[in-house]
């Protein structure tokens, strides 16, 4: 009888340890898949810091302001990736007054997903270093349409919170974004 107990004790102990490890792994997996629950800044700040800045590079190429060297293409590539990621980031509420409301709205999420899709559609162009201005312009036009439609629904008084960036004056003077 002692021999049977001793024989069963080792496998039972191993199963117990495995069970504890599995519970710890399950908890770690659940935490990892829970994703980002809130942003440390407002959605507005994310829009200005990520989406607006990225859009400038996409629009520049669509307006014929072509990258001149590897560094310039890296900037456009970074902008495309920022657009892909930014569309998903702005679906997470942050510190802004309306962030929770926006992030939970179906239309907001659709417009955010379209930003990501626009970035994904621009990726082959930037990877090929395409100088097809019309293809870039089509991407930029989709971006404008998506932005205008979203702002019409959610933020007709643009800009808000006093957050701006300097590209508007530069663009109005015809100065390259790559200077």
Automatic annotation (TrEMBL):
InterPro entries per UniProt: Cyt_c/b562
The answer to whether keyword Iron-sulfur applies is: no
| Molecular-function GO term, any one | heme binding
The GO biological-process annotations, alphabetized, read as: electron transport chain
The organism's place on the tree of life at top rank: Bacteria
Task: Please indicate if the UniProt record lists Signal as a keyword.
Answer: yes
Q: Where is the signal peptide?
A: 1-24
Q: Which UniProt keywords apply?
A: Signal
Please identify the protein, giving its name as recorded.
Cytochrome c
- Source organism per UniProt: Alteraurantiacibacter aquimixticola
Q: What is the lineage of its organism?
A: Bacteria, Pseudomonadati, Pseudomonadota, Alphaproteobacteria, Sphingomonadales
